């Protein structure tokens, strides 16, 4: 039996055993740890088939796993592929056609892949966004101040394929092992290009005498490091819901050379803060559906329940109600999501306006789906009183 049939059978068995309760990349890693007969080339081929399946989203759910995997593989492939040649030879001559033509060949509609068009933020181009699920996003590095020249030389010496984007961003193929060549967090931060573009909002505040900054849903601390690099000598406070999150953040801060900061644990959807400290700037990169990142984690697209949109919007508004009280008069709120849904984005802008006397300084859907990057939303407010 051809190894390609073996790849397809293995991918089918893996997908049958996966239930969506953990990131698929973690599940796959554990699977291959238990089944050591697969070499690196085999693992990559099988993983590609599995991810191609998830990239189909909600489309062709009536088909069995194997044909659906092959449709996904066909749509993800734009050049000659021996697996397609062997398993679906009738598609061989069509592999280089446009994405829209290939959709027609397999009978798949964009609206079946992502059936929530009416929920999207208005600036999202629906067809382009749906098509982007079939393209693996790239790895993006934000180069920290003073390190661009040395990193560039290291990458050239190592033969890395990289592109320069703007003044302080490099993009590389997703699987590039940059950690083998540079000191992550000290020299550069792995940070999606759209997330880096949130820096344009912080740049608007460079002349505003921002002293105290609270990153209230700090997660791994990427936005905090960005704020330090742009705003300089700030009094930084970080918080999140679990100690384990802050433990990982502290390790990253140590690598980044950030030694002076305050931190606390809080569930901002329920907890009333134990003190009434107020800040010049609050960064609220709130929990969300993550729908702008599904090209990186397409299993989330496959398993997504539309009811989650409203659930996250409610959670976000609970957080906002608590933190809006903690902004100084004439202070700022930077609201961020990695969502494409208007309930989490523009409708929460309206919610903020209702609950605090604010001026909307800037609002943007940060489109990444046409740049092999995530799609995000950000809005900057100045609190008038």
What does this protein look like?
With 385 residues, the chain is α/β, with parallel strands linked by helices. It folds into three domains: 3-113; 139-190, no CATH class; 194-383, Rossmann fold. It is 41% helix and 17% strand. The chain has 16 helices and eleven strands. The protein has helices at 3-17, 24-34, 40-55, 65-76, 82-87, 99-106, 110-113, 126-131, 148-158, 193-197, 199-203, 222-231, 243-256, 298-303, 307-324, 346-355, and strands spanning 139-143, 163-165, 169-172, 188-190, 212-215, 235-240, 262-265, 279-285, 327-337, 358-366, 376-383. The strands form two sheets. A seven-stranded mixed beta sheet has the order 7-6-5-8-9-11-10, sandwiched between helices. The relative contact order is 0.11.
Helix content range of the residues, please? 40-55%
Q: Give the mean pLDDT.
A: 95
How would a crystallographer describe the biggest sheet?
7 strands, mixed
Any idea what the shape is? globular
CATH fold type of the largest domain: Rossmann fold
Q: What CATH architecture label of the largest domain applies?
A: 3-Layer(aba) Sandwich
CATH class of the largest domain: Alpha Beta
- The total count of helices amounts to 16
How far apart lie the N and C ends?
A: 73 Å
CATH level 4 superfamily of the largest domain = Vaccinia Virus protein VP39
Helices and strands, in order, run as HHHHHHHHEHEEEHHEHEHEEHHEHEE
Tell me the structural class.
alpha/beta
Cross-sheet strand order for the largest sheet: 7-6-5-8-9-11-10
Number of strands: 11
Low-confidence stretches: none
Give the total of domains.
3
Strand content: 15-25%
Query: Radius of gyration, rounded?
Result: 22 Å
């Amino acid at each position: 039996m051809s190894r390609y049939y073996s790849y397809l059978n293995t991918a089918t068995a893996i997908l049958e055993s996966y239930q969506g309760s953990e990131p698929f990349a973690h599940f796959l890693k554990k699977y291959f740890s238990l089944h050591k007969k697969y070499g690196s080339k085999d693992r990559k081929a099988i993983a590609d088939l599995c991810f191609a399946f998830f990239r189909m989203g909600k489309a062709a759910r009536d088909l069995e796993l194997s044909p659906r995997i092959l449709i996904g593989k066909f749509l993800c492939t734009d050049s000659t592929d021996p697996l397609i040649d062997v398993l679906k030879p009738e598609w061989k001559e069509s592999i280089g056609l446009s994405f829209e033509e290939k959709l027609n060949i397999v009978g798949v509609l964009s609206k079946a892949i992502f059936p929530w068009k009416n929920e999207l933020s208005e600036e999202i181009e629906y067809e382009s966004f749906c098509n982007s699920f079939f393209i693996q996003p790239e790895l993006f590095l934000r180069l920290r101040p003073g390190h661009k020249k040395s990193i560039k030389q290291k990458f050239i010496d190592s033969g890395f394929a990289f592109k320069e984007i703007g003044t302080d961003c490099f993009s590389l193929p997703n699987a590039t092992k940059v950690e083998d060549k540079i000191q992550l967090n000290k020299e550069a931060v792995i940070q999606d290009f759209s997330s880096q573009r949130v820096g344009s909002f912080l740049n608007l505040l460079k002349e505003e005498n921002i002293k105290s900054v609270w990153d209230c849903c700090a997660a791994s601390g990427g936005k905090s490091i960005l704020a330090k690099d742009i705003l300089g000598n700030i009094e930084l406070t970080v918080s999140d819901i679990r100690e384990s999150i802050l433990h990982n953040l502290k390790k990253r801060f140590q690598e980044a050379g950030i030694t002076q900061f305050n931190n606390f644990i809080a569930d901002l959807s329920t907890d009333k803060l134990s003190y009434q400290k107020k800040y010049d700037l609050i960064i609220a990169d709130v929990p969300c559906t993550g729908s702008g990142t599904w090209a990186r984690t397409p299993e989330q697209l496959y398993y997504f329940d539309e009811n989650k949109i409203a659930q996250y919007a409610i959670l976000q508004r609970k957080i906002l109600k608590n933190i809006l009280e903690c902004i100084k008069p004439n202070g700022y709120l930077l609201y961020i999501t990695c969502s494409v849904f208007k309930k989490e984005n523009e409708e929460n802008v309206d919610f903020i306006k209702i609950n605090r006397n604010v001026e909307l300084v800037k609002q943007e859907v940060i489109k990444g789906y046409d740049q092999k990057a995530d799609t995000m939303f950000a809005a900057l407010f100045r609190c008038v009183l």
